[in-house]
Amino acid sequence: MKFTTAYLWETGGRMVNEDSLTVFGATKAGRDYLLAAVADGIGGLCSGEIASGHITYRLKLAFEMAISRHSVIDSDKLLRIILRELYSCHKDLLKLGKLKNTSYGTTVSALIVKDRRAYCISIGDSRIYRFNRFLHKIVQIGRNHVDHRGRLTRCIGSGAFRRIKVRRLTLHRGDTFLIATDGFYRNITPMLNTLCEEAYHDTGSLATKLKKLYLAGCNAGNKDNASAILIRFGR
């Protein structure tokens, strides 16, 4: 299952970009692998870019090492490695916060792929969207962890670590995914459907589409850091 990716990483109206992202793809022994993840460091806590950067770096490193150490790795085993890494990152940030007498926290949304099998993980208010080719519209995978006031109820690095829900999917040729922080999708959610549908039908540059939508968000009042990854799987 070959794929095409594009990403956007913008500071917006902030001085520092507290978002991080990673995209890593590999082919080994005839198997295709992909990790795509975004993380949004929590601005109300200390140095969000440290928390988000730590988790995207560690996920990529764990994913890359798992593939390099095995000629063929079972997809469920690959998922378990990523889940353990998330737990390890949570403990790391708790320890760092205790050492610095502060708190760290980050959201994370990740797509893990081996051939036609995909796993989706979302913690916090970053999101994963999939274009449904039958309904001709995008569908959010998972849900946001926010309360009625819009405040985060879960993140990595702060508070108790809760069991992570994983959505398992079977990929089809032409499938299109968007992984984005709230600074990207806020105020422009209705426009995301057009973005993903055009990507599904392979019309134009994916990077150009992301940039165009980001600018639309800026015009709609978005001033937060914005990060997004757009992925189209081959036909």
Q: Care to describe what's here?
A:
With 235 residues, the chain is of the alpha+beta class. Helices cover 33% and strands 31% of the residues. It contains five helices and ten strands. The protein has a five-stranded antiparallel β-sheet with strand order 1-10-9-6-7. The radius of gyration is 17 Å and the shape is globular. It starts with a strand and ends with a strand.
Global outline: globular
Give the number of domains: 1
Class by SSE composition = alpha+beta
Unreliable residue stretches: none
Described by strand count, sense and barrel closure, the largest sheet is:
5 strands, antiparallel
CATH superfamily membership, which one?
PPM-type phosphatase domain
Distance between the termini: 8 Å
Question: What number is the mean pLDDT?
Answer: 91
| CATH architecture descriptor name | 4-Layer Sandwich
CA radius of gyration = 17 Å
Present the secondary structure layout.
Blueprint: E1 3-10, E2 19-28, E3 31-41, H1 48-69, H2 75-100, E4 106-114, E5 117-123, E6 127-132, E7 137-141, E8 167-170, E9 176-180, H3 182-185, H4 189-200, H5 206-219, E10 226-233
Antiparallel strand pairs: 1-10, 2-3, 3-4, 4-5, 5-8, 6-7, 6-9, 9-10
Helix pairs in contact: 1-2, 4-5
